[in-house]
Structure prediction request, 160 residues.
Amino acid sequence: MTTSIPDQNCKLVAESLTDALANEWRDSKNPDNTAFAASSLTVYEGADFAKHSISRQRDALRRCPSQSEADGKRQWDNVHEVSIPALKGFDAVVAEEGHLGTDANGRSTDTYYVSLTGSKGQYVLHSDISRGPETQQQNRDDATNALSLMLSRLASRGIQ
Prediction:
């Protein structure tokens, strides 16, 4: 079980999900390949480990307004934290937005994303949506709806 997090040079590196008991990740896209989404659930040994994960993500976000993959091909700019007031019921939330300027093949692109991560007890939920530039509000709405739905499903199973 791994996650990607920016190192001290703001290059994304794979890192083990220490103290995690389970992790499930799902990617999807719409039929015309103009919108991409990902969601995940990580279960940690306890709430303190989940809080630590959220804290590390927030620290990296604040430190790296520009990020790239280790090979330098995929590059993000204008990476910043935002407030998403519609998200309720989480112990902690990190909301990130940014722009993908160069894709995995090193080609120029104009894709904007919203990435939301929330913790509830020992659970960390994540939702990520990306599309073209004129859809950032729709990205926020879709990511918020996805994360809220995931939390409601945990609650319906008696997880507080």
User: Anything to note?
Assistant: The two ends are 25 Å apart (CA to CA). The CA atoms of residues 10 and 104 lie 17 Å apart. The helical segments are 47-63, 136-156.
